[in-house]
Amino acid sequence: MVAVSNPAKGIPEIGPTVFRISAPEAAQIPKEIATAKKVLHLERVVVLYDNADDSTVSGYRTFAGELEKNGIRVADTITFARGGSDFSEPLARAKAATPQAIVVSALAREGALLLTQARGLGISVPFIGGNGLNDASVLAGAGAAAEGLIVGAAWVPGAPSAANLKFYNAYKDTYKREPNQLAAQAYAGAQVVAEAIRRAGLAGGEGIRTQRTRITEALKTIKNFQTPLGRISITSARDVDQPRTYVAVVRGGRFVELNAPW
């Protein structure tokens, strides 16, 4: 198994044939918080997180650690459970704490609702989101309320590489819309699997067990491999080593790289 969009902690540890090519939140959130602190001059935030989902709980824990490391005070930590539709109560509590920003670890559906309802309640401070908010459905669901949302990202549309430009143009020509991070990660995953099959040297007559073993071993040899995400390697722990990750912000209804104050 090659996990293409599974950023929670512990994915490769599930088993000896599980590999990951998506940058974990532990590799994205440190840069995201450090960048947000610099850009927004953050000193005080409120944290909202979904405590009913393993991935959002994992993201919350990483956020909490990075906020502490960066000396950013958490004025309140508020939990909710996925599946709800009315977040007025936790948002009112967040507003009362007068934060400079609201940090959210949630899935896309709840993220879009939180953004929309927050703006309706007069909350104008920026939102800083986990991987679940780095999703096209958040932009579609929240509309203008998503403007200014900051997320960590394994990929941005303008990532400066020939491989990404080729992928971006081919996707847009085929589907008549801009690709999102999930599309880029899925494409990179397919590239990695295809390369592993090539390296396995299979002739076609091998048994399924032999095929699996050879492909698994070949996956371990992927190093400095070019994808739309940049050059990636698979470590001895079967996790991705992606030297470059990004911080993105929603501007004009799309995710763009955040590399300067706005």
UniProtKB/TrEMBL annotation:
Keyword Transferase: no
Protein name per Swiss-Prot or TrEMBL: Leucine-binding protein domain-containing protein
Alphabetical keyword list: Signal
Repeat keyword on record: no
Family that this chain belongs to: Belongs to the leucine-binding protein family.
Source species, domain of life: Bacteria
Domain Leucine-binding protein: residue ranges: 15-240
Organism ancestry: Bacteria, Bacillati, Candidatus Sysuimicrobiota, Candidatus Sysuimicrobiia, Candidatus Sysuimicrobiales
InterPro entries, per database record: BCAA_transport, Leu-bd, Peripla_BP_I
